[in-house]
Amino acid sequence: EEFLIASLDTDAAARWLGHDDAGAAALRALERIFAEGWRSGVGALHRVGDPDSMALLDDQAHLLLACIDAFELTQEDGWLHHARDVAEVMLARFHDPETGAFRDRPRQAAAAVGTLEEPLLPIADAPAPAGNASAALGLLRLHALTQDDRWRDAATGVLRAFAGAAQRLGGSPAAFAGAPSWGVTSVTTIV
């Protein structure tokens, strides 16, 4: 997860500060994740190069954001394709149809430790941005790029699932607080 967040930060630095070397480093990190840690239909493994590690929501959500950042940096359709693949995995494997939010691990996955048998629906940032907050933001950004309503609808489900709880969590859902603006503010498109 730290690998993905570093890639996101590096990609952002490249885009906003004009550091081409930072952008190249971020893209190499993402390419490595897809080469060594991505499994089609499964998602990004928690540990790149470790086939025994499982896919977790936070990794998928941060990878979705990183792919969108990479697309915005390079304008290469391959990154948008990767973003769609990640979003598909999130919906197929992590989405909780009862709540509209995403579970911390795939619905079919057993917990590694008995005390963790009840899946979590993470919203609090601790210390990385929470999986559901990152997922909602990523899906709304993907919707803005593709106009595919499935992404907006899934993100809206996450926002609804935590609408009443976020204000009771103090500053811990900071990432979640930024996502609704993508859902209610129109996006300017330049053609």
- Quaternary status of these chains? single chain
Tertiary shape: globular
Tell me the β content: under 5%
Tell me the radius of gyration.
Answer: 16 Å
> How would you state the average pLDDT, rounded?
82
DSSP helix fraction = 55-70%
> How many DSSP-defined strands?
2
> Which structural class best describes the helix and strand composition?
mainly alpha
Topology as H/E string? HHEEHHHHH
Low-confidence stretches: none
Our measurement of the CA-to-CA distance between the termini, rounded to an integer number of angstroms, reads: 35 Å
Number of H/I helices: 7
The biggest sheet, with number of strands, parallel, antiparallel or mixed sense and barrel status, is: 2 strands, antiparallel
